[in-house]
């Protein structure tokens, strides 16, 4: 497995509100839900680059939306990255993709610790909101049409965690996992991850995947400790200057 295998999973489990095909690129509309649903990407994930004309057309489509061009560039797309370098694009948010066989992580949590439920409860919305997972990001979960559920975590008899997971093909992807400060360093995140893996396996997924920025050392440590392995990375490339939205 590699990062290109996970892009269709990302698109299905964390979908853009709408998008258009512009030459070799898929260009979403601007979305306050964040980069994952706003960045243009090569429509064929295994592709390595595009023509100058194709790149210019994608840039023009985003500028027509009143925003700076923003691209998601996978680790094997260095020719595209070189083209963006030549135009003065900046690089940010190095993001690693990590996977594990769902059955290798799946386990039933202790009683009254972690649950799966859809739609999410009001308390999960409150937890997400407090953790910075605001309404535009929660709207992405709601519009996903794939098999999906939310995770609800409790520790010391108090609500303390929320997450969201969806499946595309035989790969599940976990998003928006957040544990409140009062619930951290108590094992709740591990229980929620194992619950996510069990739900994935029970619903036909072979793999559980997650995307994590390199700056998030705590999350990296958690996923590595659980046996998750990196399978690739991507970055966002943004055009300097112009109009930002």
UniProtKB/TrEMBL annotation:
InterPro entries to which the protein is assigned, alphabetical: Acyl_CoA_acyltransferase (IPR016181), GNAT_dom (IPR000182)
- Tell me the superkingdom of the source: Bacteria
All copies of domain N-acetyltransferase, residue ranges = 107-245
Task: Fetch the Gene3D superfamilies from UniProt.
Answer: 3.40.630.30
Which GO molecular function terms does the record list? acyltransferase activity, transferring groups other than amino-acyl groups
Name of a matching Pfam family: Acetyltransf_1
- Write down what this protein is called: GNAT family N-acetyltransferase
Q: To which species is this protein native?
A: Gymnodinialimonas phycosphaerae
């Amino acid at each position: 497995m590699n990062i290109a295998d996970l892009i269709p999973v990302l698109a299905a489990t964390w979908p853009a509100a709408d998008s258009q095909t512009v030459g070799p690129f898929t260009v979403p509309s601007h979305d306050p839900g964040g980069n994952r649903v706003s960045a243009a990407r090569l429509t064929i994930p295994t592709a390595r680059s595009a023509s100058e004309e194709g790149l210019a057309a994608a840039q023009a489509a985003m500028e027509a939306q009143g925003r700076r061009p923003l691209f998601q560039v996978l680790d094997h797309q260095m020719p595209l990255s070189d083209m963006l370098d030549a135009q003065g694009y900046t690089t940010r948010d190095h993001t690693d993709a990590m996977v594990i066989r769902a059955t290798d992580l799946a386990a039933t949590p202790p009683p009254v610790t972690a649950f799966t439920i859809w739609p999410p409860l009001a308390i999960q919305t409150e937890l997400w909101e407090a953790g910075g997972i605001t309404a535009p990001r929660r709207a992405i979960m709601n519009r996903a049409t794939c098999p999906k559920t939310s995770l609800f975590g409790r520790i010391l008899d108090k609500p303390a965690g929320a997450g969201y997971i969806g499946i595309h093909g035989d790969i599940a992807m976990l998003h928006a996992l957040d544990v409140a400060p009062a619930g951290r360093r108590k094992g709740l995140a591990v229980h929620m991850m194992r619950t996510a893996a069990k739900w994935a396996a029970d619903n036909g997924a072979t793999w559980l995947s997650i995307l994590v920025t390199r700056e998030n050392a705590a999350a990296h440590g958690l996923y590595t400790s659980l046996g998750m392995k990196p399978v690739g990375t991507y970055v966002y490339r943004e055009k300097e200057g112009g109009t930002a939205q």
